[in-house]
Amino acid sequence: MAVAKTAMVLAAGLGERMRPLTLRMPKPLVLIAGRPLIDHVLDRLAAAGVETAVVNVHYLPDQLEESLACRTGTKPTILISDERDLLLDTGGGVKRALPKLGPGPFFVHNADTVWVEGASPALPRMLKLWNQETMDCLLLLAPLVSSIGYGGKGDFAMAPDGRLKRRAERQIVPFAFAGVSLCDKRLFADSPDGRFSLNLLWDRALAKGRLYGMRLDGHWMHVGTLTALAEAESWFEHEGA
Fold first, then answer.
1. Does the bond joining 76 to the residue before it have cis omega, within 30 degrees of 0?
2. Full-prediction pTM beyond 0.90?
3. With 70 as the cut, is the pLDDT of residue 22 above it?
4. Residues 37, 27: contact at Cβ < 8 Å?
5. What CA–CA distance (Å, rounded) separates 87 from 89?
6. 3-state helix/strand/coil string of 60-110
7. Is the bond leading into 143 cis (omega within 30 degrees of zero)?
8. Which end of the chain has fewer CB atoms at under 10 Å, N or C?
């Protein structure tokens, strides 16, 4: 079983689809079930054995840093990757933080993704499945049928061995990306400088047959809009965490 001691938490986005709520706070500090989204993320990473989380900041960064400073004495240890000068998107943000993340494997975790575990916690299962000989990246995938607040057509189809294929233009596929991946620094070899999306690196891995997925055993909450936030809050209220 692999061990991931570090993780990247992507927290620098503008949260435009959550306005007007995010006009006064960064999206990672939006409350769900009485706690900031990013606290749910950090606690889950700590439970999976992550010792250091690198959090990138750009939008309303002082608020986010102040909130994270209040976690002093709790795991994981927080390091800041400052993107005040330029928002680097998902791929560029992780690449800037690579010196803090080490060789890996490490998790890349969106700051706004929340789920309720099923019988088997997701992150330890990802570590158990990780195989650097066959994988460049392993994505956590949420079945559409058990997702809350998601109205899209899905992102990926998954073969029995876990290899992924992207959704075609007019196709509906069973799985949405649930906001967490596992990789190591090899994924970023020959990647561009500056701003770029992780999708660029995933497409390279797809072309080599080295992009894999793992099904989430639980309920994923796509907290992308105010409506989706209300749906997630309603689920917590009536079903419990």
1. yes
2. yes
3. yes
4. yes
5. 6
6. CHHHHHHHHHCCCCCCCEEEEEECCCCCCHHHHHHHHHHHHHCCCCEEEEE
7. no
8. N
